[in-house]
Write a structure and sequence with these properties.
Elements: E1 8-10, E2 23-31, E3 34-42, H1 45-66, H2 74-80, E4 88-89, H3 92-107, H4 117-129, H5 135-142, E5 150-153, E6 158-161, H6 174-188, E7 194-198, E8 201-204, E9 214-217, E10 231-233, E11 237-241, E12 247-250, E13 253-256, E14 271-277, H7 280-292, H8 295-304, E15 308-315, E16 318-323, H9 334-337
Antiparallel strand pairs: 1-9, 2-3, 3-7, 4-6, 5-6, 7-8, 8-11, 9-10, 11-14, 12-13, 14-15, 15-16
Helix pairs in contact: 1-6, 6-7, 7-8
Length: about 350
């Protein structure tokens, strides 16, 4: 999800570290209109460069499947078939992420819904033009959304969008999914120490040489300022959701780009949600869902998924934080990492 979040990974070593003949290599290029970074440990620079190139090609292949910004992408073609009353065969990758999205929809009780494309596009246009959408326009677009309007045929790996003008939007799950697949590709090539950063969705393998984990910083609500406490993680994923750049103001309220599927309106609470999970696909969609759910329901859902969540909310110019019980166990301290 291209949220343009300011979430930084920080390293306790400033230069290449040699241990067991492995060196640290870092590669960054623009993908999905945001920086895409791969950091890995390898013994050979030529091999590291080859793997990075291979991984970025893998990213491009997924973008051409998942991006609703590309008219010729597979998901765009699927959306164009809506209302045609026919099942459309889809690629293994698209079918897999739709199944993951269905699971997310069910577990979140509808707080995460990839059929929100029509309403998301309406709000996207509103933010660009700085014109608040009319309630009638929102109501009309909401008629075209709903997971119940999508049929999934697992036997034939095909999808039917039953309502005309439906649009699928994978913005809240695709980046996490891609990060997981890139990390998997590196592992398949015997690269165990790695970090993938997809615009704030972070997947990690084994920690840097001679360290206990990767240190990750998360920003405060509506700010590029990092919280004082950093995270220390390895072989896990982190995702933060917030509206630091994407919002529209109207009637004294700030409406986030994160849309509540039950109302069709952007959430108005000023908060960041950080999720630590076993994989980035889960961390990505869960951060979005927890931005919509009540605090109690968000914590309950995170616990069910064996994830940890931190919700930092700005109230009366003060930051109020609440988290699941074990979130603090991931906080970095020099004594633990030396």
């Amino acid at each position: 999800m291209n949220r343009n979040l300011f979430i930084a990974f920080l390293f306790c070593v400033a230069s290449i570290v040699v241990h067991g003949q492995e060196k640290k290599f870092s590669f960054t290029t623009e993908k999905m209109s945001s920086p895409f970074t791969i950091i890995l440990y390898d013994e050979d620079s030529a091999h590291a460069n080859y793997l990075a190139k291979q991984c970025f090609q893998l990213v491009d292949s997924f973008v051409n499947i998942f991006s609703d910004y590309i008219d010729t992408s597979e998901i765009s073609r699927l959306s164009k078939s809506s209302g045609s009353d026919r099942l459309v065969p889809v690629s293994p990758a698209l079918f897999d992420i739709i199944l993951e999205s269905k699971k997310a929809f069910v577990l979140s009780n509808g707080a995460f819904d990839i059929t929100m494309g029509p309403i998301i596009r309406l709000w996207r246009k509103a933010r660009k033009e700085k014109i608040f959408p009319e309630p009638s326009a929102i109501a009309e677009k909401m008629k075209k959304v709903g997971f119940d309007k999508m049929e999934i045929n697992e036997a034939n790996r095909s999808i039917k969008l039953t309502q005309p003008e439906m649009v699928l939007d994978l913005g809240g799950i695709a980046q996490g999914y891609i990060a997981d697949k890139v990390l998997d590709r590196l592992k398949q090539n015997n690269i165990k120490g790695a970090l993938i950063d997809v615009s704030g969705d972070i997947a990690t393998g084994n920690p840097p040489q001679q360290k206990k984990g990767w240190t990750v910083g998360i920003n405060l609500p509506e700010s590029e300022q990092l919280q004082k406490q950093l995270l220390l993680i390895s072989n896990m994923s982190v995702s933060t959701s917030g509206d630091i750049y994407q919002f529209i103001e109207h009637g004294g309220k700030r409406y986030s780009h994160i849309i509540d599927p039950k109302t069709g309106y952007g959430v108005t609470t000023q908060k960041n949600v950080t999720v630590i999970a076993n994989n980035t696909t889960t961390a990505d969609w869960l951060a979005t869902a927890c931005s919509i759910l009540t605090l109690k329901k968000a914590k309950r859902l995170a616990k069910r998924l064996h994830a940890e969540v931190l919700i930092a909310e700005r109230k009366n110019d003060k930051i109020v934080q609440s988290s699941t019980k074990k979130f603090s166990s991931f906080y970095y301290s020099n004594s633990r990492n030396d």
